[in-house]
Design brief:
The structure holds two protein chains of two kinds.
Chain A (H helix, E strand, L loop, with lengths): L2 H9 L4 H22 L2 H18 L8 H22 L7 H8 L13 H17 L2 H11 L5 H8 L4 H18 L5
Chain B lengths: L2 H8 L4 H6 L6 H18 L16 H8 L18 E2 L5 E9 L6 E4 H7 L5 H10 L4 E4 L4 E10 L4 E10 L4 H4 L2 E4 L2 E3 L2 E4 L4 H4 L15 H8 L3 H8 L8 E11 L11 E7 L5 E6 L3 E4 L5 E7 L9 E6 L6 E5 L14 E10 H21 L7 H18 L7 H10 L2 E10 L4 E9 L15 E7 L7 E10 L4 E6 L11 E4 L5 E8 L1
Parallel strand pairs in B: 2-21
Antiparallel strand pairs in B: 1-6, 2-5, 3-4, 5-19, 6-18, 7-8, 7-19, 9-18, 10-15, 10-17, 11-14, 11-16, 12-15, 13-14, 20-24, 21-23, 22-24
Helix pairs in contact in B: 3-10, 11-13, 12-13
Classes of the chains: A mainly alpha, B alpha+beta.
Amino acid sequence: MEDRDIVGLYFARDEAAISESDRKYGALCRSLSMNILGVLQDAEECVADTWHRCWTSIPPQCPRSLRCFAARITRNISISRWRAARAEKRGGGRCDELLSELGECVADPGGDPVRESELRELSRSIDSWLDTLGETDRYIFVRRYWYGESVHGIADAAGVTGCAQRLHRLRLKLREHLEKEGFSV
Amino acid sequence: MRPDDILNAMTDISDRHIEQARPKRRRARYLAAALAAVLVIAVALPSVLPRMGGGASSESGIADLEESAPESSIQFMSYAGPIMPLTSTAEGLSAGRTVTLDFSPWEPVWHSIDDMMAELPEPDAEARAQYEEWFPDGGYWIESTDVIVRDSYVLSGAEGETALVYPFISSFTELAKNMPSLTLDGRPLYGALYAGDLAGYYAGDTGGGFDYGSGIDSWDSLSAVLASGGYMAAALENDMSFAEMPVTVYRVEDISAPPESEEAQNPTLELSFTVDADSTTVWSWGFNGGSWDFETGEMSRNFSTSHDRDGGHCLIVIGGDISEPDVTGYRTGDCSEGNELAGVTASVTREETTMGEILREAFDSYMENYFGVEYGGADGFDRELLYSVSLRTLALYYETGAEIYEDVGSLFGAIAAYDRVFYLVCDVDLSAGGVFTAELVKEASFDYQCAHTENQGLSGYELAADLGSNINMLSLTARLENFENCTISGGNFGFDPENGVFETELDPSVDLYHLEVRRK
């Protein structure tokens, strides 16, 4: 079923919207959630929550890309769930690994968190920085820190060697960019 | 700033970055797979392949397509794909092509309450009263943006019997609407139908793996999918050798569980076992959930006994084997310690079989239990072809190491719902030439009504002049018919209905023509 038809089902408040969403994007969302959480059952629950969130937000929202809309929700829910699991000293997944690496982008990983109001600006800055990268670097960075994919998997998919070193250089570049943009890294 | 902040901020990067970073494929594996398919097909269809995806003047199909992408065409949110050109197995075939876009479906059609009642399986007074409340005018107008396409070729230059290959874009579930009807010299022509794989395996230009979600969503992605010829070659080869793969199946039978109650709101049966993930792949059929601890190799699969559907519950084990599964009952789908439920029992039997045997069983069960209901057994739906394509898709999953987190059964529905390129292949004798015509309904590309983009209300249609055809197009004529309800907003066909120009001669060497239309 085309996205337009699925979105139409949400607008018509037809519950088939959820089954059709899952049919089309369930695997993508499960895979994304599994990367973050590492537990199939948790990933399944995150995906179920994703469809519930879609149900309550469409309408009024009308996603331009249902794929990105759903995947973004899954990512948010999965990271939240991972944080809760970490607080309870349980859970697996790849988030620890990602955060440890992203520690290279900041001077003090244990420093003060940025304010909620600054997050949007930080997002915009990272987005514009991604635009300055070559296609392969951008692909590698987003696959790692948006999709949470393994370094090995990314290297394999992108057909590049030295992926870990490349990511290291990209993290340093990002830090440099954020400093230039005036963020207190 | 903390690392968390960057991880959070990454969430809201642009859609285009997220889309662009969708999984891509390993070139080596992709080329090897494409080459293998090409070698097989080359025996049967020796002259189809040389120009697949390429322009007439270049040996590099990919480069040509990249260069030829028309910058002026609109990237619609919902992409219907172009009208694709006929190709052939014959060397030296030439054609004069005429494409008619008939806009008669744009004529509004009144859908009365009587029409609606006639569509109901059990029409009654209550339904009529409901319709009368909803539609006080007695019905509503249906305004379609489909066009009827007549794609005609005056063929010459063939010697003896030739296979004509007509490609079109559809999903399995929409085949009834999208299937072209073919004629040769006015007589009906019946072709064998072949289906391309999900686009994900072919669309990437650098990577390996299998992007389940990647579809045909733009001219660029379609061009990339068809660039090397591997896509069409694999479709025509329809390799089902994956069916021969030996597998071990653990079947759950004789299930007994307490009924739902206050204490056990959703009695659930879980199979738990250990697996060496390096040597063994486990797929499941008939389960709702599960878990996998990567470090210890402990894996589980579970399903609700109170919402059990017809059909089986099987683990499909490929490569090595798993430990003997333990059966445990739980009060709900939360299969964790402390939530156990007594009285949930089942027998688990182990058998050695083939992938084809067990997938056939799963496929038949899925079709029986779900498909007929969901899709109403649409006409033109080729279940055997869907089975073979499902088998090929799962083979790609396995070969590329893609992980399947969901039930195998549910994949069949997804495989049926995705757009792909289909091929109708007809053996014909063209010694004396002939006029081949394909007539089909073509949906428009468009942006969602609710998106409030500048393209709102705009319908897009595309015509691919080349896109892999090995027929030498001597001329290309395009015509508009029944255009009274429409007005042109853009495009490169050269139509000018206001001044009576409903027919244009086009350059066959231009890869893509596009037309954007609004309702008057």
